């Protein structure tokens, strides 16, 4: 991508839309055509395709911006404020991949750093669009739609198509703008890549098997979806949000102090524990996972770890439980810590590293024989 410089060698971006399009590959031009839903030009040669897109994009980018949320509008404002070019160091890869498909934002590199540019000829039109009250109203509405949808899926994992609309409408109106809602959510899926859709419904990006979640939820007919507040969903709808349930700080402290992890590494381990809990895994399954990464000095150390783990897991909102915690549904869903099996179904003492016999003391620390305790 060619960037222009003024007499002081300051980067000021690309002058024309046609110039920006000419620097792209045919496949990239076709991506723009598909996103803008421009028909009858797919078979054109590159020069003709560039010309057609250069004529169509200034007419269509108002419609594109009307599907944006506040994050993307803020991005446009920053690019305009910097004379058509700004650093993209704070953008994710998926955001960079999305931007060039809009047809008016282009990505490149300057001195090895990623940048985003808008052709200078488009800036005056964009200034008017981002100040338009109708656009600003749409963007505010879209932001709520996207955050609430993402928040619901963060807590519920997977939601059937029709049910999602019903749930979102409890917090913000969709009808009569149902088609606009679909377009906004589909566009946000492509930009953020934090939710996806398939024949089972909408799912949070970390959901591997939507059907399993739906089947587990269906088996709990006695409970409805947890009634989150709008504030809770808007918070959970922020990019990279991670809930901090009761037990979060205790487990974080344990990892940093007893296992000498950096704070960032400890946070990642705690987030892994939260994800295990959201999936409905048992503490023993999580202990097996942690055992592959940590060295336990004693049974007391294991007990301290498991106390913190169980506290966290019992207070984490689970996909299988429709957003409830095990603590909230304690009477129906009580978590139990079973013995830790090895691959052959044996139990290994973490203290001696030896197989535990039926007449040995139980490694859980109860003081009873294994056969009278966890081995019963």
From TrEMBL:
Domain of life: Bacteria
Gene3D superfamilies in alphabetical order: 3.10.450.50
Any Pfam family the entry gives: SEC-C
InterPro entries cross-referenced by the UniProt entry: SEC_C_motif
Xref: PANTHER family: ADENYLATE CYCLASE-ASSOCIATED CAP C-TERMINAL DOMAIN-CONTAINING PROTEIN (PTHR33747:SF1), UPF0225 PROTEIN SCO1677 (PTHR33747)
The name this protein goes by in its record: SecC motif containing protein
Organism expressing this protein natively: Niallia alba
